[in-house]
Design a protein that fits this description.
Elements lengths: L20 E9 L2 H10 L5 H4 L1 H7 L9 H16 L4 E11 L9 E13 L6 E11 L5 E12 L12
Antiparallel strand pairs: 1-3, 2-5, 3-4, 4-5
Length: 166
């Protein structure tokens, strides 16, 4: 790895303390094009996402649902800028991914992330593992997604730690 300072917008492991809640500044309105493109690109033929007539006549929703995997990707994507951008080693996986309410075309999502736990890596002294809980709400403040995600995070490099006058 290079000795050059790592460009980042995210937080270092030491800054991600349990209980920290980040209300992300970015929001995203989900469009029909987003849903159709993601759904077809990922080879999902579900009429629930693509067929307006089917959704209108055969579902309790009356209109197509946004693909939940797209919703998950947007939620995590919104969180990256203020949590893990340039400070993560790897996404380790999800412990939970729930969608308590549907997302529809035209819904605007806002996201908050909470640090649930953080621990130093046992095998890598310059890294730690953080459990994030990402919560997404639509424009009516309805909870539409909740995910728990483990990320392997870099510790703050020594050269970026501010000097203390003594």
């Amino acid at each position: 790895m290079s000795d050059a300072p790592r460009p980042h917008g995210g937080l270092w492991f030491e800054e991600l303390t349990p209980g920290l809640v980040i209300h992300h500044r970015l929001r995203r309105t989900i469009t029909e094009a987003d849903n159709v493109m993601f759904t077809t690109m990922t080879m999902n033929p579900a009429a629930l996402h693509l067929d307006f007539e089917y959704a209108r006549t055969e579902t309790q929703f009356g209109k197509p649902l946004v693909n939940s995997m797209f919703t998950a990707a947007v939620v995590v994507g919104i969180s990256v800028h203020e949590t893990t951008h340039g400070t993560t080693v790897a996404n380790l996986g999800f412990e939970r991914m729930d969608f308590p309410a549907p997302v529809f075309h035209g819904d605007t999502l806002r996201v908050e992330s909470e640090v649930v736990s953080a621990r130093a890596s046992k095998s890598k002294p310059d890294q730690g593992i953080v459990l994030f809980e990402h919560r997404a709400y639509n424009q009516d403040d309805t909870l539409v997604a909740i995910m728990r995600r483990n990320a392997l995070m870099w510790c703050q490099p020594a050269e970026s730690v501010p000097a203390v006058d003594g």
